[in-house]
């Protein structure tokens, strides 16, 4: 179980306030976070002056909730198990759990931590809920591993099998017992 040192700080940061220094400028809202400095949010201009060669993540908003682009965050974090959404033609995920009405009956997939209904058969609604899952249960991980050379070796498949394929249908057949035709035929 391993949580990057900047993650909790990122999730508890307040974004979209007006920059004290650049508040009058067009891009003066604090929507950036630096993984190297792990300080407060800052604006576009602060980035150019103070975080030039740092790893910076841009926070975006969807209905007043903070989101990050999957293409940015997946370089630094294993986001598997977290629900993603396509918003304004970019794939994003939510930083934190968001208040919700009680989910209706018959919802198939729920966040393991907060119970929000999910679109896909995944475990968490947000990075925040995955963080709780990692810390509390230890059965999720943020660590990106198996990158680079190891992936090309081909041994990876033995260690991390992909979704197991269903057993061949003949395995279920028993001699002498007639079996039903498959559904939908
Ligand atoms: C992770 O652990 C929690 C608590 O034991 C459990 O409720 C949850 O189903 C587990 N998830 C998986 C995918 O193992
Ligand atoms: Zn600024
Ligand atoms: Zn920095
Ligand atoms: Zn959740």
Automatic annotation (TrEMBL):
<feature type="region of interest" description="Disordered">
    <location>
        <begin position="145"/>
        <end position="185"/>
    </location>
</feature>
<keyword id="KW-0732">Signal</keyword>
<dbReference type="Pfam" id="PF04640">
    <property type="entry name" value="PLATZ"/>
</dbReference>
<protein>
    <recommendedName>
        <fullName>PLATZ transcription factor family protein</fullName>
    </recommendedName>
</protein>
<feature type="signal peptide">
    <location>
        <begin position="1"/>
        <end position="21"/>
    </location>
</feature>
<dbReference type="InterPro" id="IPR006734">
    <property type="entry name" value="PLATZ"/>
</dbReference>
<feature type="compositionally biased region" description="Basic and acidic residues">
    <location>
        <begin position="146"/>
        <end position="155"/>
    </location>
</feature>
């Amino acid at each position: 179980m391993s949580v990057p040192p900047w993650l909790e700080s990122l999730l508890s940061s307040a974004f979209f306030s007006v920059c004290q220094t650049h508040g009058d400028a067009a891009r003066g809202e604090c929507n950036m976070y630096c993984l190297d400095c792990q300080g407060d949010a800052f604006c576009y201009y602060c980035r150019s002056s103070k975080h030039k060669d740092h790893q910076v993540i841009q926070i975006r908003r969807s209905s007043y909730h903070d989101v990050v682009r999957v293409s940015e965050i997946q370089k630094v974090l294993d986001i598997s198990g977290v629900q993603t959404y396509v918003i304004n033609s970019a794939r994003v995920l939510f930083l934190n759990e968001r208040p919700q009405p009680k989910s209706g009956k018959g919802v198939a997939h729920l966040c393991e931590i907060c119970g929000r209904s999910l679109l896909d058969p995944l475990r968490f609604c947000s990075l925040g809920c995955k963080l709780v899952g990692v810390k509390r249960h230890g059965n999720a991980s943020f660590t990106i591993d198996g990158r680079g050379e190891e992936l090309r070796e081909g041994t990876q498949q033995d260690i991390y099998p992909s979704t197991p394929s269903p057993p061949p249908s003949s395995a279920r057949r028993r001699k002498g017992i007639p079996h039903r035709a498959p559904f939908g035929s």
